[in-house]
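To close the section, here is one more complete example, presented without commentary so you can practise reading it yourself. The ligand is S-adenosylmethionine.
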Amino acid sequence: MSAARPFLKWAGGKGQLLEQFKPLFPKQYERYIEPMVGGGAVFFFLQPEKAILMDLNAELMEVYRVVRDNVEELIADLEKHKNEKDYYYAIRNLDPGKLTPVERASRLIYLNKTCYNGLYRVNRKNKFNVPFGRYKNPDIVNAQGLRAASRALKKAELLTGDFSLVLEFARPGDFIYFDPPYQPLSATSSFTGYTPGSFDEGEQKRLAGVFKELTRIGSKVMLSNSDTPFVREIYQGFRVQTVYAKRAINSRPDRRGSIKELVILNYTD
Ligand SMILES: C[S@@+](CC[C@H](N)C(=O)[O-])C[C@H]1O[C@@H](n2cnc3c(N)ncnc32)[C@H](O)[C@@H]1O
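Output:
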């Protein structure tokens, strides 16, 4: 049995930060809730007994559903794909609305493994628009990895929607981890490739409002973001920890090869 880990490469993936996160996770909690799950690095690392995973990206949540409920069919469908330029563009041009859920999930995983830079990105019309990546040997069908992810996801409820939905079911004792699109460090480094519409300062403030409301409810909340005066200000009064991430971005690193990021916590143990 191989250990479950993210099966998609996702912008902002937290794989490299897990070791630094370890001492920051609460020692005890009832359910694990991740409202902006993306590639799910933290979920797969924690492997909680009960989880609720959410994202605004409906295609992403459908892939999780297919991996959880139909993993063998998905693996069989992935086997048909080829790492060839013409084939890539033919698959990219398919209308997802005309495919079955298994075919749609298979298409998204295939594009994620073979596209340039291996990221999910759509244009304003919500069409996947990344060019072919020319990888020698992309891991299109990782059957063992998908089966392991499927087993981990059997313990998860999967929801599509806005992060504020969490207020409808959060309870004292839940552990909630938020990983929003980061507040840009400078006007030029902004990245808004997740879903159409950008996560601007208004959205960051709305999220901070949900963080405060969850604190009132008694849930344990952890949140990642970039280290900017704005982020520090909207979470003033909460525990702030720093972690160091390797990032190829356009600003002067304040530690060799890495940049400082913030983890905001509303609990101490
Ligand atoms: C930084 S990524 C999460 C990365 C993830 N932690 C990982 O390790 O791969 C942010 C995620 O937030 C989602 N998102 C953006 N706006 C949202 C909203 N209003 N409600 C819920 N999810 C949202 C995006 O679709 C994206 O998957």
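Once you have examined the tokens, check your reading against these statements. The chain has two domains: 15-56+161-265, 66-149. The domain at 15-56+161-265 is CATH 3.40.50.150 (Rossmann fold).
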